[in-house]
Amino acid sequence: QVQLVESGGGLVQPGGSLRLSCVASVSNFRISIMGWYRQIPGKQRDLVAQITTSDNTYYADSVKGRFTISRDNAENTVYLQMNSLKPEDTAVYYCNSRGPFYNYWGRGTQVTVSS
């Protein structure tokens, strides 16, 4: 059974940092495009950052220069380093793993940015 397990969320003050981790129990992690999405109540789930199998990255404009996505294929883990956090970054963050014939989601981790 495929599992994506996120961790690292929490409460942080504006300007602070958090590092999210997602461990994937998938045999095809190395060939998967990994991404982080976020969602607030009543809104759609939006792509925050994505990393391909060749380590090409994409970032939403709202997080460019503040967030960094990386992956460790040996550990089947993808990370999201979030710096200079703002209240508008508050959301549930979801890990995603996708390929030609699959699209898996984690259960999400809450990130709250508040003073």
DSSP summary, beta strand count: 11
Series of secondary-structure elements, N-terminal to C-terminal: EEEEEEEEEEE
The DSSP helix count reads: 0
Rg from alpha-carbon coordinates:
13 Å
Shape: globular
Question: What is the beta-strand fraction?
Answer: over 45%
Structural class of the helices, strands and pairings? mainly beta
Description:
The structure is a single chain. A hairpin with a 2-residue loop joins strand 9 (91-99) and strand 10. Helices cover 0% and strands 52% of the residues. The chain is globular. The model has no long low-confidence stretch (mean pLDDT 95). The chain is mainly beta and 115 residues long. It has no helices and 11 strands.
In short:
This protein is an all-beta fold and 115 residues long. It has strands spanning 4-7, 10-12, 18-24, 33-39, 46-51, 57-59, 67-72, 77-82, 91-99, 102-105, 109-113. A hairpin with a 2-residue loop joins strand 9 (91-99) and strand 10.
